Amino acid sequence: MTDRKPIRRSPRAPANSAPTLDDVARAAGVSTATVSRCLNAPDRVVPATREKVMQSVKALGYTPNFAARVMAAKRTHTIGAIIPTMENAIFARGLQAFQEALRNRGYTLLVSSSMYDPEVEKEQIRALVARGADGLLLIGHTREAQIYDYLEQQNMPVLVAWSYIEEARLPSVGFDNFGAMRALTEHILSLGHRRIGMISGLRAGNDRADRRIKGVQAALAQGGLDPAALMLRETPYEVESATLSITSLMGEPAPPTAVICGSDVLAVGALRGAQAMGIDVPGQLSITGFDDMELSRIVTPPLTTVHVPHREMGRSAAEELIEMVEGKRPGRSKRLDTYIVSRGTLTPPAG
Amino acid sequence: MTDRKPIRRSPRAPANSAPTLDDVARAAGVSTATVSRCLNAPDRVVPATREKVMQSVKALGYTPNFAARVMAAKRTHTIGAIIPTMENAIFARGLQAFQEALRNRGYTLLVSSSMYDPEVEKEQIRALVARGADGLLLIGHTREAQIYDYLEQQNMPVLVAWSYIEEARLPSVGFDNFGAMRALTEHILSLGHRRIGMISGLRAGNDRADRRIKGVQAALAQGGLDPAALMLRETPYEVESATLSITSLMGEPAPPTAVICGSDVLAVGALRGAQAMGIDVPGQLSITGFDDMELSRIVTPPLTTVHVPHREMGRSAAEELIEMVEGKRPGRSKRLDTYIVSRGTLTPPAG
User: Percentage of chain B surpassing pLDDT 70?
Assistant: First the structure.
């Protein structure tokens, strides 16, 4: 294609800069919109044009990365986040910090709630891409591979939060759900508890719930207990449903002396349910939460729980995602630490 | 302009249909994008073209309403909502219902949080318009007139929720914040309370907070008390800050026997603060909330509060906004009823 016309660099481009979308468009004799389309939706371009453009792309050494960088010049300064739910404030605090950090860098945040439904999340990913989001924040790593393929085709910078998994396909700024729950369970076992119950969120499609369960089981195995003996109830993250779960757990032939809850919301429901049954917490039953939401300090007694650094996670995720969007790097994962907060709902077992 | 060329109707348009964007574009000899620009961003079109297009618009009897309807054919099926905060779940329940109802009609919801900052809200309105939202949901009626002018120029359907004000510029699906608080205060006075305190959200830019204060004052005046004697503290909607406010109120020379809180979040903070001071609630001090969030049932004793029909409000707002977007009507206001929920924090004053 070099025989067609000389490749001119954009007059505005500094000598050493990467080729721009303009350069490719000029070289191919098409509009920049056509070049964009060839790179992002090649099916929508006639083959002859597509070939011409792709030859210019090649001749100029224009790569998808460069394309992403050039398209960044048309940035909308809008970041999308899709969270599983807006209720219960589980994601609220981290998201607020995420938004504040974005705003300090000139970005507006648009949030969508998938209601823990993978189909809804898929629609929302497409909607946010179609609305021109510069980058996306997703929660957790469990989703169909074709979604990741789609996001790659779109050159969309995507970061995961709330779940740090080193080997995952996307970079993540999060914490080790497995390790956090294993540490809590080890602590509970060290107090002498042997009959353990767990009220977990629904694990399907939710890697945080899944890994928290596995963390509990790992600690049980390590402590010489049978992981299969864990009295496990899975339920939506709602106060009312945890109240039902605790009733069911306490109806077991040998009921637990400690119930590990997958979130503070579930622990609050378990606490209320136990108290309604006349069970003294923690005298007769220990209950633990997860998240360290404001809720955990409001109930009586206040919850022993796992502190998740929500604000720090939101802030770090914003910084990392902006670095990705502005093309400075492909996205680096970051693991944040959690720790146990001892309040009023965990003591050694009675008798 | 009829002398320039005959006005042809689009071959696809049924005989009786309104003129389409295509019709205008053909008549003016420009692209549909240019017509759109003339209607939506006339500053970005050279005067000669603009005049040509506006003549076609006029000749075809094409009106901004028709324009809106035609542009609706390019609907993005995306609705934007801007809420003051994502923390504390105040707006979460209503928004979840709003989203579910939108989804049933094929619309995706994108949410932004203004952090109670009018400047941030303004940026977010522009971002959602720029991202192609089909319609917007805003909270409350207090904002600069120029924002309403801008939204009108953009032909953007906008509905307000959480605040029903009949004479307001935008249609609203909400409740009567003034009347709800007046009714609660009347009830408190009927129990014999005479020294009343109030912990309110910050009223600047927040018509809900402002009208709740005025509702309390109206009931005091009606009950023969001096509204100026209301012991009022304004504070952000946070548990911790309400804890400080109750300490300050109880330090008054003649402290209140009942403290009316502008939200459940504030009431929970007041309750914790009072209990930390060794004050028995409701034995020595009555406290009331507003919203009837889950929080109000979780604390001990559970809060007497005002029930706001959050889910119904979200659902109704979605239905109304979709009707507006789909061009069937300009938007009708709807007032939803609130009522007092008597739980454990309000009794007649001691002695």
Answer: 89
Give me the residue from A123, A131, A299 closest to B131, CB to CB.
Answer: A131
DSSP B183: H
CB atoms within 10 A of CB B319: 17
ipTM of this complex prediction, to 2 decimal places: 0.76
**What are the CA-CA distances from residue B328 to residues A238, B68, B314 (Å)?**
38, 11, 20
Residue B222 DSSP label: H
3-state DSSP: chain B helix, strand, coil percent, rounded to 5? 45, 15, 40
Q: Report the alpha-carbon distance of residue A346 to residue A258 in Å, rounded.
A: 8
Is position A300 within any domain? Answer: yes
What is the domain extent for residue A251? 177-309
Domain identity same for B58 and B125: no
The answer on A292 and A213 residing in a single domain is: yes
Q: What is the pLDDT of residues A152-181, one digit of tens each?
A: 988 899 999 999 998 899 999 999 999 999
Alpha carbons B155 and B138: distance in angstroms, whole number: 16
B residues 68-87 near A, CB within 8 Å?
76-78, 80, 85-87
Give the CATH number of the domain where residue B228 resides.
Answer: 3.40.50.2300
Q: Do A182 and A169 belong together in one domain?
A: no
Instruction: Determine, yes or no, domain membership for B8.
Output: no
**Domain total of chain B:** 3
Q: Which of B108, B241, B310 is most worth mutating to test chain A (most A CB atoms within 10 A of its CB)?
A: B108
Smallest CA–CA distance, residue B48 to chain A, in Å, is 25
Which of B95, B110, B117, B311 is the best mutation test for A, with the most CBs of A within 10 A? B110
Which one of B87, B92, B109 has the shortest CB-CB distance to A112?
Answer: B109
